[in-house]
Amino acid sequence: MSQGMQPPIALTIAGSDSGGGAGIQADLKTFAMHCVHGACALTCVTAQNTLGVTRVDPLAPAAVVAQINAVAIDLGIAAAKTGMLLNRDIISAVVDRLSTDPLPALVVDPVMVSRTGAQLIDDDAVALMRDRLLPLATVATPNRYEAQLLAGQAIESLADLIVAAKTIWQLGPQAVVVKGGGLPGDLRGVDVWFAGDEPVVLRTETVDTPHTHGTGCSLSAAIAANLALGQAPLAATQAAKTYVTQALHHSLAIGQGQGPIGHFFPLLNGWLNG
Ligand SMILES: Nc1ncnc2c1ncn2[C@@H]1O[C@H](COP(=O)(O)OP(=O)(O)OP(=O)(O)O)[C@@H](O)[C@H]1O
Ligand SMILES: Cc1ncc(COP(=O)(O)O)c(N)n1
What we know:
This protein is α/β, with parallel strands linked by helices. 37% of the residues lie in helices and 19% in strands. It contains 9 helices and 9 strands. The protein has helices spanning 23-33, 61-74, 88-100, 126-133, 144-151, 158-169, 215-228, 233-249, 265-268; strands at residues 9-17, 37-49, 52-58, 79-82, 106-108, 139-140, 176-179, 190-194, 200-203. It has a 6-stranded mixed β-sheet. The chain has a 3-stranded antiparallel β-sheet with strand order 7-8-9, with helices on both faces. Helix 4 links the parallel strand 5 and strand 6. The two termini are 20 Å apart. InterPro entries: HMP/HMP-P_kinase_dom (IPR004399), PM/HMP-P_kinase-1 (IPR013749), Ribokinase-like (IPR029056).
């Protein structure tokens, strides 16, 4: 971006991860690395580190909506993403807000189960997420476990990813990417895109690292950033996948558990190091 040009603005509606690896923290880093100005509407505060989540405190639904409104009326949002929405009341308030006055592009990361197995949503909120939020999505990005819940099937193979993507697309999003990070072996780097036409297999190399915390949040944030920059949804998703693969190659071996992916890679050989 040349000097004087203003960046597009992307909004994340998500939870805080005190460890800085996922949630709002991953989203804002991802936006910044795309030269997109990041705004945020916080939904909840998790006490979390590389070992897992120990406590979650929700914000009042009205506080979440007030943050969205504050950004929307002043800054102008080019694209948004939703992450951890936690409970029925917050999902319902966000859906009402986004249905009344839609944003130009919306990535729905239906955060329900993290790859560490932590449940990140109340049981009775899953149906609301499926029935009311997913249909608003330009792109929806369930992981293996979320896709199993949404599609009502087991996912063990590439063929299963394709069937699940088609089933979830029937729920109403314009496009769906089922992420294969939770699958074993070489399928870890394989996602399936479906937008009603031919399914597209998105394949990058599998990065062999235990430090994968934040991949899902960062993928959906990078898709939102690329949409804000004007890319079409499939191109935005392909570029986002490349971003996450690079960040996995530079992941951080910090903490005692699953460290976060590294967002600094675009800077490593740039001006910071001369
Ligand atoms: N080891 C890996 N090598 C290459 N790509 C990977 C690997 N793990 C995950 N990915 C990619 O990262 C993105 C996020 O997928 P993943 O299934 O990990 O989401 P998630 O479960 O929501 O993330 P998280 O682990 O943060 O909860 C996808 O594009 C997936 O293909
Ligand atoms: C606050 C928060 N939001 C989302 C996730 C899941 O993130 P991911 O799927 O990237 O591990 C998380 N662990 N914490």
